[in-house]
Amino acid sequence: MHHIDKITLLLKRHFVGSGNIEADKKEIMELLERHPELNQLLDEFKNPELAGKIFREYNDLDISNQNLVLESILERINKKPSKRTSIYKISLYAAACAALIIGFYFFNRTTTKEINSEIIAENIVAGEKGAILRLADGTSIELSSDKEGIVSGEDLRYEDGSKLLDGNALEANKLLSLVIPNGKEFQVTLSDGTKVFLNAGSELTYPARFTGTSRDVVVKGEAYFDIAKNTKMPFRVKTQTQTIEVLGTQFNVNEYSKSSSSVTLVEGKVAISVPNQNDVILSPNQHATNTNGKIAVKNVDVSEYIAWKNGEFVCNYESVSDALENIKRWYDIEIEIAPAVDSIQLWSSIKRKEDFAEILELIKLTNQNLKIDIKGRKVTVTR
Prior knowledge:
Phage tail protein beta-alpha-beta fold, alpha+beta
């Protein structure tokens, strides 16, 4: 059998999961002896990220192009690539496929598992814009992922001006709830001009139009507020555990759990009220944590706490569970962390628009002791 036919057969055996592994190993070794340049390819292919990338690219080709890949291996081994466009464009795939079959037979199970995780991770993509608007009459409106946000005024519109609800419908539904599912983010401009940016897994309940002596809203999860100034009508943000009162300011509130919440002040001043405790006044660049009704304040670099609003994940020597908390909501996945792992601290900064495979790569660079397994949308972190 010609050696190109042998490589073709070995590749096809691998992709259909058949063949005698031990016998194939012997024949692969003979190929390596005849064509030492394949050893270099194999060394290059020991990078799991590269292996996963090539494997995905090969599988994405249609059958005719896969056959061209297999045929062009001969050209890579014996001579320079043909100038025929179809073959030339995939000559790199051909070289990689030759290494692929060698690599998969000689990598241990752990490495193969890592490659598979990389492949699966590519299917977990970053979140996007989107929300569900719930009206007082029980109606739910799924908002477009092509839009940045909505604006409340005489009527309700997307930020680009396209109308959602006319004035009569808005008047009939005086209380609105903007629900942000996991894997989404959205923003709203309230009737007073206040802008609210909502993170994944959050909810904002607010009046269609502010009336009375105060501007009251309720938030669950995480939101960044840029409050329109109005000294005659204080703005109050209520959560499950506290009330934050402001006149005109920018701040971030995070309360996904009753047991722990935080407020980070960017500019202005806020007063935090909790039961059975004096109000706590924050100044710019201060971060207050509320743990079971006890408030602690410290000076911080606020950019770390509002990074999500600016399109980034930032963790500064945080435990694995804390570092991955926002990530799991943004990618809408389940993350299980072994107890022995949580003492490990991570530091990183990465764009929120990156696919989950990039997150995995960064985590591995941060700490080589972590082992990550992916099954469907469940990620298990061990060491």
